Amino acid sequence: MAEPTRRQLLKGAAAAGALVLPGCAPQALPGTLGGADWRRGHRLRDGSSFPAPQGAPAEAAVVIAGGGAAGLSAAWRLKEAGFEDFVLLELEDSVGGNARSGRNAVSAYPLGAHYLPVPNHEARALRHMLQGFGMIVGEEDGAPVYDPYQLCADLEERLLWRGSWQEGLYPASGLAADDTAQRDRFFRAMADFRQAVGADGKPAFAIPRAGSSTDPRFTALDRLSFAHWLDQNRFTSPVLRAHLRYCCRDDYGTEPEQVSAWAGVHYFAGRRGWAARGDGDRELTWPEGNGRLVTLLREAIAPHVRPAHSIFAVTREGNGGALVSAFDHGAGASRQWRARTVIMAMPHFIAARVAPAETIKGALRYAPWVVANVTVSRPPAGRGTALAWDNVSAGSDSLGYVVATHQSTSAGEGPTVLTWYMPLSREEPAAARKLMATRSLAEWQQIVSDDLLAMNPDLGGAIERIDVWRWGHAMVSPTPGFLSDPARLAAIAAKPPVLFAHSDLSGLSLFEEAHYRGVVAAEAALTHLGQSFESLAA
């Protein structure tokens, strides 16, 4: 008898509006147009004056400036070490950065990052956290066992290719002989990079990135674009190049012509997930995406969180500490904290305005994205392979959609939410941000619904609501030269009382990188404060 599928196991465990026609504009659809609070961000950018702080500064041994994944991870590490004298200040009304999530009557859903690959062996701190959160539930033959109910259920991915859905994201039919030969040669090259070790004894490509080799054989790839490297190596197949464009836009929000060749190879060679039961190449995912991790982190450090605080100045004091000035949007007044250590857990372009004396100029580039959560009265279908968690069309400029209810026992039945992704990578980032800011909700809804109906005409009449979320600076993009970017290297080398923690320091906007940078900064702060602890980052 065949082994039951995970979906069957889930079902067994669970046993104890408005109409839009294909081609019609969705102006009447319910929905919201949201995003990061650009008004607060622009007030800082434009140098708008904040009122002078009132009263004596509050005291905190550590102030964490920013509540994205890195800031939350730094706070978690302090708490994990038994250290409580810290405060986390966040500009937005809620923490989480681009891993935030939303919810409606149908389901929770991501507003950005929607999964976490099973971590590499080198991601020790992250595995420690996942074990504490109940996502790692045991060990077999020395390798971690992950909770099967939090690993992505079947089917993980499908691609709309030549009018029919197929399993996987690389076209599997109708390929010319040269397309097939180039595909095989490319993936053999990536397998070689994945196994390569530098002269320093480190893997050529690792996650966290800090574990990667500094051998010039590999780092020299950062001097050219991924597209240039592909040309040099005669990877010219249109099918292969289209797939690689999808990959670059998916992880970096950027076209292959602007992605460092080192980062392009890292996409394929950096992941070596470590897990028992053959689960190393799986993903952890939840209806709300990485919002699940954000919630657990926030709950662990809740008394220390101060949302709706715009930090507008961080300055050193003569006593070896630092003074943090922030505007409290709830109270409508400015406040100050005197800290022995400040962890700047914010993007570099913001840190440069908040603490100009602590930063130097760099050339970091940030990718703008649009994410839409589309509520439908019935799940999509389509010719060929059945609905998957991640659904991509080879003929679309979007990255397709993920299904928020994929992990539930009723997946494939009833209403659901489809989270649709589009990096605005064809335009220069500044032009894309302007476009993003000037388009109306109705215009975005039209773009989203047209794209979804092109992929799934069967959704005609099923789209009930489209909520659009805009990320002007969604993620750092690893452009050529990012490994030697002076701003990034200076932030990594910073010493107390001002430390830095953000995925910008890695140049790769991945949860694993943000978590690592937060942990490293927290442990540096603990060392500076004379606290004893066992390192998780080593």
Keywords:
538 residues, eight-stranded mixed beta sheet, seven-stranded mixed beta sheet, 15 helices, disordered N terminus
Layout: helices, strands, pairs:
Layout: H1 6-15, E1 33-35, H2 38-45, E2 58-65, H3 69-80, E3 86-89, E4 101-103, E5 108-110, E6 116-117, H4 124-132, E7 136-140, E8 143-146, E9 157-161, E10 164-167, H5 177-195, H6 216-219, H7 226-232, H8 238-252, H9 261-269, E11 283-284, H10 291-300, E12 305-306, E13 309-316, E14 322-328, E15 333-344, H11 348-354, E16 365-376, E17 390-393, E18 401-403, E19 416-423, H12 429-438, H13 441-455, E20 463-477, H14 486-493, E21 498-500, H15 511-528
Parallel strand pairs: 1-20, 2-3, 2-15, 3-12, 9-17, 15-21
Antiparallel strand pairs: 4-5, 6-11, 7-8, 9-10, 13-14, 14-15, 16-19, 16-20, 17-18, 18-19
Q: Overview of this structure, please?
A:
- This protein has a domain at 53-99 and 287-351 and 501-528: FAD/NAD(P)-binding domain.
- Helices cover 30% and strands 22% of the residues.
- The chain has 15 helices and 21 strands.
- The strands form 5 sheets. The chain has an 8-stranded mixed beta sheet with strand order 1-20-16-19-18-17-9-10. Strands 2, 3, 12, 13, 14, 15 and 21 form a 7-stranded mixed beta sheet that branches.
